[in-house]
Amino acid sequence: MTTYDGPIIDAHHHLWDLSLGRHPWLSVSAGKRGGLGDLAPLRRNYLPEDYRRDAARQNIVGSVHVEAGWADGDCLGETRWLDTLDKTGGIAERYVVHVPLASARTPALIEAQARFSRVVGVRDVLSWSADPARRFAARGDLIDDPQWRAGLARLESRGLVFDLMVFPNQLAQAERLARDFPNQLFVLNHCGSPIDRDGEGMRRWREGLALLGRAPNVSIKISDLVAYDHHWTLESLAEVVLHCLECFGTARAMFASDFPVAGLHASFDEVYDAFKAIASQLSANEQRALFFANAARLYRLGDLSSPTRLPA
Q: How far apart are CA 227 and CA 174, in angstroms?
């Protein structure tokens, strides 16, 4: 068994400047969200220098910024802001941006977002629960909405990946979506969000993930394992990681931090050291795929083929 020490692309993290007032979900008056627990520790700026500090001990050579709940109606504002940030060390070198795919403005917004050279994907969060404290999406029927699907259909021609965020009860719908759009590349976020940790909840997640894993146009981000496993152990994390790999294989999976959100329950080093420990049983090529190569391919970061470590 060999512990990975090569270059890493963090395929999923967030940045924000709360002084801009553009992240309503992080306001003091906002309620709980998504089963993440107390959000108070996230109510501080998280900028490239903060990411550098957290990631200093890991060989991060590039990263993908995923939309961070910027104010509705101004998704281009987040992209413009990201372009002003220091990209030293490849931080936020590529963006997965928000486009509300069911909007009348969707066609124009996709065209506008695609003009930014670092934009490689779109996310419009679908995670919905009957429990208001858990839900991220405003509606539970978006995934089957004809107008939303018409918006999704516009991504392929622009070469944009769709980052797919759903709860386990939506994984069967997600599989139908992937089947209906066979030429669209999807990346499932956060292992399919195994939020219910009892035996029945984990069974539903395992079966749903196995179903979605049969869709060849879907990859998976093994990220924020601690979001719904607040009292995690290496063994409990390994259970999730190994099932993700069983369903998707090492050619369609990648590791990612989801920082600073994962920081609610683990340090950056704990996240990546767990990945390394669990992956140590794999071959060198498989480990490189999970930590670097798959993210480089899907998010068009091939120019990092001869990477250097982030400055501390």
A: 21
